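Entry 14. Structure prediction run on the chain below.
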Amino acid sequence: IEMAGDSRFPDVDAEGSENNEETEIVVNVGGVRQVFYGDNLNQYPETRLAELINCLSGGYDSIFSLCDDYDPGKREFYFDRDPDAFKCIIDVYYFGEIHMKKGICPICFKNEMEFWKVDLKFLDDCCKTHLSEKKEELEEIARRVQLILDDLGVDASENRWKRCQKYIWKFLEKPESSYPARVIAVLSFLFILISSVVMCVGTIPDLQVVDAEGNRMEHPTLDSIETACIGWFTMEYVLRLISSPNKLHFALSFMNIVDVLAILPFYVSLTLTHLGAKLMELSNVQQAVQALRIMRIARIFKLARHSSGLQTLTYALKRSFKELGLLLMYLAVGIFVFSALGYTMEQSHPETLFKSIPQSFWWAIITMTTVGYGDIYPKTTLGKLNAAISFLCGVIAIALPIHPIINNFVRYYNKQRVLETAAKHELELMELNSAEGKASSSKNELEDLAREGKEGPFYSSRLKVSHSDTFIHLLSEEKHYRTRLQSCK
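Output returned:
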């Protein structure tokens, strides 16, 4: 397209600069023609469409700064943009708000609004929610990609200790980084299982031994296995703590607190066994040790570190606090109402098991949750009718919030899979772009050498290396393209 002075374009009609309510412009966006009038466009004079009314007086330089092409015969402006998004954006001139159609990428729609110079405040709140969610997803993808790049990159300015610390952190925290790291993750998983099995097997009376005072204790073999597992957990935690980039964040992390709770009881009970007898009675020491041994069940939560499913379940429960609170509220109201009714209806029976309303809470809980131990049950006809209504209400109250909780779990699980795939695709795209850049630079060097007439052995070797470097040509340098992160595809 040539600018002013080209014979193909006649001079712009001066009447085109008139900015009144009868001004009419024709816009062609991606092959879709739209006719607009000045009274509508002038409501928002800062938008690109409103600027088209006044650009005719500025010549072709002003016109082509706003559009991709212009037909002076038809007085039609051409734009190479998304017509579907444009149909949504022009609603601002007629309704004062914009709704994004289903199926349009929120990030691309935001870019379209920026191109047409329409403020985001006109976007409806429901659509802003989708946009914020997509932004969060892109930020998460960028964070994952950056973490992978940080793992792959080596900073030459770092000293030997920093590089060693980074290697240990990758070795223990990122099993996907190398084959030895995966082996360590599998070993850690096996130690957790062995420790949990030993804790359970140690409570079997046939496998216990009797000490000199007649007290039962765990078998020495099981005790040795337990000590070896705790030694592994301790070494793993200390190495992870030393190599952690942010030690305060590491120490306050939930999973790391679980690790401490799984390790600490062993050392506290060991200390009480050897030193506590001097400070308190032996029976009190044994009770304290037994209480600490119960805390060993916390190590089963260490499995969540190696299971994406458990992590997804934890996140789904966090996102379902509202539904869980609703469930507890339903149950609390039902327990209070039906326990009070049961106590009132059962007072006429001489052998009633409902002694008080607080005591009836237990009956209402096991009835509404459909457990029904049978230790407390109604004996009158009205009491049985009240019990029937209570467990029917309990089934309904429990079933109502279950579906949103399941949806949260499925949504988060699918989202994590999509984010992982998107991060891998982004890395692949970056590798392709990098290979294209290297190949283009090699090609430019060869062209320079050919122009200078350098045909010696040096030129032949460079040519051979260049032809051996394979690359995929994506787009020419003159074209502007968007990465997967920007286009959200």
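The longest strand covers residues 24-29.
Filed with the rest of this week's runs.
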